[in-house]
Amino acid sequence: MAYLSDFVKSTLSRVVLGKEIPTFPYNIGNKVESFDSTIWALHKGTKREDNSPVSILCFDCVRQKDKLPLARNAFKKFRTIRHPDLIKYIDGVETESYIYIVTDAVTPLQDHLRSNLDPNLIRWGLFKVATVLKFLTVDASFIHGNIRTSSIFITKSGEWKVGGFEVLSSLKEDQPAILTFAGLIPESNRYAPPEVRKKSWNIVKDFELWSTDTWHYACLIYEVYNGAFTNSEQLASPGSIPAEMTPFYTNLLRPDPKTRPSVGDFLDKGMQAKGFFHNDLIQIVNFLENFSVKEPLQRDTFLRKLDMQIDRLPQEFCKYKVLPELVQALEYGSGGPKVLAPIVKIGATLEEQEYEALITNVLVKMFASTDRSIRLSLLENLSGFIERINKKIVNEKIFPSMALGFTDTAPIIREWTVKSVLLVIGKLSDKTINYDLLRYLGKLQTDEEPGIRTNTVICLGKIAKHLNDSMKAKILVPAFTRSLRDPFAHARVASLMALNATADSYDKVDIANRIIPCISLTLVDTEKIVRVQAMRSLETFVKRVEKLIESMPDSAIVDTGRESPNGAPTARSATPSTPSSETWAGWAVSSITKKLVTGDMQPQAVGSPRMGNNSPSPAGTPVPSTTSNNGSGMSLSNAGGSNGLHIATEGRNGGGMGGHSVNRYSSALAAVEADEAIAGGGGGWGNEDDDLFADEGFEPMETFEPSTPSPMPSFSTMKPTIAQAPLRPSTNSSSSMSLGSGNRAGAGASSARLGFGAMDDSGADAWDGDDDLFKSLNIGNSNTLNARPLSASLKPASRSMTGTPPPPPPPSSATTTPGSGFVRKEEKMAEMARKREERRLRMAEAKEKKSQTTLGARKI
């Protein structure tokens, strides 16, 4: 017996799991224990190919051999009859032991009735069953003969599907199953109409086709609202059946089959205004099922109402009934852009796998659409679904299509594309953000629409935290400062606000050199809103740069004269002491003095020309200098002789600052040290403009003021001469500008002028001549009036010099040794110096004669 029991168990396991059918592409799972009132066993199953869920009806041909005709009739009808409200047949197979029928994943209605099914779903279910019965009895001329709770199944969307095809047949068949085998159905006598109970199932053919199904439909209504019944007398009491449905329900139970209305009549009564089938849920279903044939205006109205009613509808119904219909309408174009809003709202309740399967693929396809209305609707509803799409799909499929909106000819598409960047930025890769996206935003910053330019600046400010450091420094400052010049006031305000929001992204150099100067320009903007925001932003950046420079040293100057113990130069003190007696220019004077003391500035000899004084200083005698105030300026003069250096605060063209020549070949070394220092410090402020004019070939103009005219010599008398230097007339002895033989102050002031004869401190003149060239000249003889260093003759003559100018250099010898580059160079230099001297002497003579006239006042 134990062996036989094990054999039976093994056989049943093998059969139930479908192992005896190697080609059966489904896995048979657990049995639904609550489904036990029919000839079928309901099992959960999965498809092996994609693991999708299915339901499998299994019939044991061995144990229920007497009911085999019912199972075979049902199997045949499953394969031959199709209707949306009939349980969907997928696959099936019949063997010697079992019959398998594979359908959509469903659950028995009996399980839902025990869990207090939603009243709206109950009415919708009864509506669906009535629709099927109308189709079978009126359109297809069939009699179902087995309508009860055990033959009704519910899908995951909440729809009721009709099964129980055991006796479904047509009276036109040779042997209708309802006439022959209806009595084999479990508890058939309890559901049989009165005429059948009195006689037999053969009586059915004598009445209308719907008479039997009408009675069974009334039994179903009673069971749904009141539960199971034991005899037909209980059906007379409506119980919990809705009041508006009760009168029509009573008509369905009429004893005379000839007076029973059809289920179609019951359906029509319920669909009338304020009828029991006239509710929002059923209207939505009916409209969705015929959505593609509705008028555009009707569709738009329906979609607006649906968007408002979604929250009041059963969640499962919305997810698995409404959503697939809307997605199909969107994908195939019948829904238009307005269908997207309810799709997004319903999709928020889906799981990740369900969302990807039902919505993601359709959205990707819609982004590639050329219909602007669809693309605009996607951008407007982007916030509702972008977080449910993974980064890979966004980067590879959605953003490339979305980026086309940056260059779209429709301004509204460009504007919404810019706004959408803030929603997708978290899904984009660094490469996409820092290269592709910034390139598009850069173009939009010059868009013709001011609103788009403004939104672009706002967008850049908000996505700045997603940019890498190199792109921040390269992009943000130019982008925001350019928008500060935008003619649209709100764009300028947006730029200031963006700079303020991204203040932490800039270093002190950018803030000081690039940002603050640009912000300062908007402080006087014509629009008040710009000025107010500019002041706020400026305060922010000033505080920011103050914080950044806190750690900077007080000075970057390194004291090279002092070394640290390890031999490296030490930095100056962070807080250098400043003597109270030191003037504002003390640092420059001390620097020059330091050069003289430390040997950085080599002493140079200067041949001092005679400045209107016949008592020159002896050559080679050091002359100490003292500092004295002349009243008209500060002067450094020679206390022991007439050769002094005076610096007066006079105009550049007035001649008050007499020129002096600096020549390193003079023997008067000690007397020139002070002059060298002053010449080195003031050479940059000398009359360089005069030299510029001379090089350009025209004379510098002087400003003449109206005065009493006096006779002016003829222009023919103003001939340039080389042998005679111009003489400057004496002026008031009290003025620092006066020149005379007895006025030492005037001579000192004249000699202090830093003119064209000054040399650079570097020790080499601009001509780079050789020192040997000057050895044959009488350089140090200060007693000779006409003695003048050649280096001075190579420079422009000072206008303050008195006496006879030196003669021109002798012409170069024609016997120069061929091949001697040194001699040729000296000849060229001497010739150039001679020509330059002639030109400037002519200018000086002309100016001197002009100054003798009273046509204008000299500039002080």
TrEMBL record:
Which molecular-function annotations from GO does this UniProt entry contain? ATP binding; protein kinase activity
Q: Which InterPro entries match?
A: ARM-like (IPR011989), ARM-type_fold (IPR016024), CIK-Related_Protein (IPR051177), Kinase-like_dom_sf (IPR011009), Prot_kinase_dom (IPR000719)
List the biased-composition ranges (Polar residues): 611-640
Q: Which GO BP annotation is one of this protein's?
A: tRNA export from nucleus
Compositionally biased spans, kind Basic and acidic residues: 823-836
Q: Where is the Protein kinase domain?
A: 1-277
Please give the GO cellular component terms listed in this UniProt entry.
cytoplasm
Bias (Low complexity) ranges = 568-581
| PROSITE patterns linked to this entry | PROTEIN_KINASE_DOM
Superkingdom of the organism of origin:
Eukaryota
Stretch list, region Disordered: 556-585, 602-659, 726-747, 779-836
This protein is called: Protein kinase domain-containing protein
Origin organism is Linnemannia hyalina
- Kindly list the organism's lineage: Eukaryota, Fungi, Fungi incertae sedis, Mucoromycota, Mortierellomycotina
